[in-house]
């Protein structure tokens, strides 16, 4: 095209088909954006202010000289790691993988893996052994104790329990 010559390209906006999926047995969400006839170079994925996923693309159609374009912005959930979002394009599908932060309920819940299933003394992610008590959840589990205070509290409970048992046993 010569300098100063008017462009005969017309633009046509379209809305691509999008599908949310959660991968089995993981905290990963995937957004699939179906973009037939698009090439990787014609797409742009970015994150604005760590809270908005911006997806855009522009494709010149071969038969009529029109440019197909789209611009989609999606507010990211607060439980997503924005710095770990990954995009992959293949087979006319743009797949955007978004790892989810564990919820407060999932943080205390042990992960089941085949190597330590049924083994209550296998080490957890922190390198400390798991036990039956770590699987219990109650309102008291939200309390934070140092190891020293927790040990003292456990010892006091045991002393009280044995004292109560002794009193009941010797009552007769």
Commentary on this structure:
By secondary structure, this protein is of the alpha+beta class. The chain has two domains: 11-99, Immunoglobulin-like; 136-172. Helix content is 16%, strand content 30%. The chain has a four-stranded mixed β-sheet, with no helix packed on it. It has a four-stranded antiparallel β-sheet with strand order 2-3-8-7, with no helix packed on it. Strand 7 and strand 8 form a beta hairpin. The longest helix has 23 residues, at 147-169. It is rod-shaped, with a radius of gyration of 29 Å.
Topology pattern, helix = H, strand = E: EEEEEEEEHH
Based on secondary structure, the structural category is alpha+beta
Q: Fraction of residues in helices?
A: 10-25%
User: Tell me, what's the shape?
Assistant: rod-shaped
User: What is the tally of beta strands?
Assistant: 8
CATH architecture of the largest domain: Sandwich
Secondary-structure blueprint:
Blueprint: E1 11-13, E2 17-22, E3 28-34, E4 43-48, E5 52-60, E6 67-75, E7 86-90, E8 93-99, H1 104-107, H2 147-169
Parallel strand pairs: 1-6
Antiparallel strand pairs: 2-3, 3-8, 4-5, 5-6, 7-8
Organism: Cucurbita maxima
Domain SHSP: 8-117
Keywords: Membrane, Stress response, Transmembrane, Transmembrane helix
Highlighted features:
single chain, 172 residues, alpha+beta, Immunoglobulin-like, 2 domains, 4-stranded mixed beta sheet, 2 helices, 8 strands, 17.8 kDa class I heat shock protein-like, HSP20-like_chaperone
Q: In a nutshell, what does this entry contain?
A:
The chain is 16% helix and 30% strand. The protein has 2 helices and 8 strands. The longest helix is centred in the last third of the chain and has 23 residues, at 147-169.
């Amino acid at each position: 095209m010569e300098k100063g010559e008017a462009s005969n390209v017309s633009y046509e906006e379209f809305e691509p088909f999008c599908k949310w999926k959660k991968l089995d047995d993981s905290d990963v969400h995937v957004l699939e954006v179906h973009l037939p006839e698009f090439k990787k170079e014609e797409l742009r994925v970015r994150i604005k202010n760590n809270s908005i996923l911006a997806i855009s693309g522009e494709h010149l159609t071969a038969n009529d000289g029109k440019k197909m374009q789209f611009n989609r912005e999606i507010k990211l959930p607060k439980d997503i790691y924005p710095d770990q979002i990954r995009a992959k394009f293949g087979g006319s599908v743009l797949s955007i993988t978004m790892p989810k932060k564990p919820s407060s309920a999932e943080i205390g819940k042990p992960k089941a893996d085949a190597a330590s299933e049924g083994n209550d003394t296998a080490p957890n992610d922190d390198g400390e052994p798991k036990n039956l008590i770590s699987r219990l959840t109650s309102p008291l589990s939200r309390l934070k104790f140092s190891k020293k205070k927790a040990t003292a509290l456990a010892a006091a409970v045991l002393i009280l329990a044995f004292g109560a048992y002794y009193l009941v046993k010797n009552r007769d």
